[in-house]
Design a protein that fits this description.
This protein is an alpha/beta fold and about 200 residues long. It contains 6 helices and 7 strands; from the N terminus they run E-H-E-H-E-E-H-H-E-H-E-E-H. Helix 1 links the parallel strand 1 and strand 2.
Length: about 200
Amino acid sequence: MQHILSNLIIGCGNSSMSGDMYSAGYHSITNIDYSSVCVSTMSARYSGCLGMTWHQMDVRQLSFPDASFDVVVEKATLDAIMVGEKTPWEVSPQAAVFIHQALTEVRRCLKPGGRFVSITFASPLFRKRLYARTEYNWSIKKYGYGEGFEYFVYVMTKGEELSPEDAALEKKRLEDTKSPPTTIVTMQTEDEEDFLFNIDF
């Protein structure tokens, strides 16, 4: 079965996820990564997949028009951005600015009603507070998978309000933190998985 959704994979790395999605019927897939070497390698590997494209791009400066995609997916891209953080309890000002710029671009490129899917090992305690901002104009749902070594899938839907619980997270963040300075950082990602197909787009 072929799906007509337009999909953007940010920080695609050398993951097989795009290929798995293509095999599952998602044929409109745009992949971006900060590494030109990675993009060149993956483009050659999947050259036979019509409708799948690869671009070297900074997630903080996406070159796509507003409302371009039905679904935006990131798998461990934000984890890679924060790999140098000393503690998950407090994100550095540099990482906070990077993530905010990236999420602002993701929100801009999503169509109304579109979904941003974030796949990570980061628990809701640490990750939801990054996503819970009224300015992103999306709701947040969390799915957990695995036992012992648990991972999470967060699905943000553009145009829906934050739940009272998530709005409270935003309020607490505003009370506890000051606005971070506008500093720029760089990073990327990688890997694979098929649990994405359990999410109802």
